[in-house]
Amino acid sequence: MKKRQLIERVSKEAEEDHAQPRLTRADWLEKALEMLIQNGIDAVRITRLADLLGVTRGSFYWHFADRNELLEAMLDVWQQSNTASVIQAATAPGTLQDRILALFICWLDPELFDPRLDFAVRDWARGDAALQAVIAQSDQQRMDALIAMFAAHGFAERQAIIRARNFYYTQMGYYALNVREPLSVRLSYVATYFETYTDEKLDPQAEADFRQKVIARKELWGDERIPAR
Amino acid sequence: MKKRQLIERVSKEAEEDHAQPRLTRADWLEKALEMLIQNGIDAVRITRLADLLGVTRGSFYWHFADRNELLEAMLDVWQQSNTASVIQAATAPGTLQDRILALFICWLDPELFDPRLDFAVRDWARGDAALQAVIAQSDQQRMDALIAMFAAHGFAERQAIIRARNFYYTQMGYYALNVREPLSVRLSYVATYFETYTDEKLDPQAEADFRQKVIARKELWGDERIPAR
DNA sequence: CCAACGCCATACAGTGGTGTATTGGAAGAT
DNA sequence: ATCTTCCAATACACCACTGTATGGCGTTGG
């Protein structure tokens, strides 16, 4: 699901025409998420957001009771975006190859899975046990979907777990290190990773289709969406 | 290298008797690192540290010029602890098996590699390009050591890179997700992971020795060093 | 023994953030 | 055409934190 849609849904507002003269709850929420991603939760200050939005704090306190309400809305957006995308890809119709490639798409398209948001939320949870529990639950849901995917294609329980962990942890590690590689380089690793995870060869035709699909999508998200973090 | 030693070295102070009536630069630094790990860089406030140390801020401004000097000292400690441990393990004498196991020890012993510090520093770098560059350099050094390790034991260039990435990213992903497992569970995965990374069987005797070694070390770091993050 | 140094307390000025109360004004509804 | 409703500006009280200036006091060395 598109993030802006989610933001508006969480804000309980209908999607309206752009170029509004006044702000909506969703506008504040969007800016706050942007701030969270770029500078961490402690940078999400009402004063600062008001400056960026070109209004005073008076506006904020009309849309939200207080800062806490904003934070809760932000968490709602996260909960309903990244995890849902992973699970959807892992349970996609088709062969194991189809599903793995769907997951690779997920890893590559920030509209489906935004690693910056994911890690910003994880950092946010530092020192907050309740939030950590929420995140752990989401991780468990993602892992369960991945384990089920491998298990459904012939891997025994323990093997499915190890493969799911390798698959998921490797990708999270990649994000955690904030690696910055051009898309072409990432694409060149796809076949090798696929074989590592599945012990099968990746069908060359499928790989070609995948490349084309990703490049077509890339047009949509624009050129430089590689996170500066 | 032990972290407290490093802290004192960075503070340019000799190790003294405990139970000092007055504080040293190292005491402030240690508390600040603790705060960074538990609550992030934005929680590293002079006022708060002073409260925790039971003194007023007057003490701080005797030991440090300003907050910035403290932050630089904290970064020095990180630079000289985690990365050094990884490189040392990866270049340890012996077979590939010896080195991999040395790295596993690293992953398990927070005195050698403290993942909480590592990720706290990564989070700190959010929105700070200069700091990101420092971290990227450390990551590169670690990766180079791992690639060289695999290459030195017969893996071709590309294979060595993929294996090093899998090895390192998987572990970083594990830490990033803040997984909390008992030591016994982690130990039970060692052999399987070893085989995944090397395509060799882990010598049962070596595995037994490893278990014993880790458990002996565990006595040293105490029981509950599993990060609450 | 007392003088200098090392470490800390106190007081002050300044900044940036929160939340509340009140007022102002433009768009839609009737 | 006026009357709500929605959104934003302004003003106020309050708190957390930084950094500086200065004074106090115990410890140590000459």
From TrEMBL, chains A, B:
Domain HTH tetR-type, first and last residues per copy: 22-82
DNA-binding region: 45-64
Gene Ontology molecular function, alphabetical: DNA-binding transcription factor activity; transcription cis-regulatory region binding
Listed PROSITE patterns: HTH_TETR_2 (PS50977)
Pfam families listed in its UniProt record: TetR_N
Matching InterPro entries: Homeodomain-like_sf, HTH-type_TetR-like_transc_reg, HTH_TetR
Protein name per UniProt: TetR family transcriptional regulator
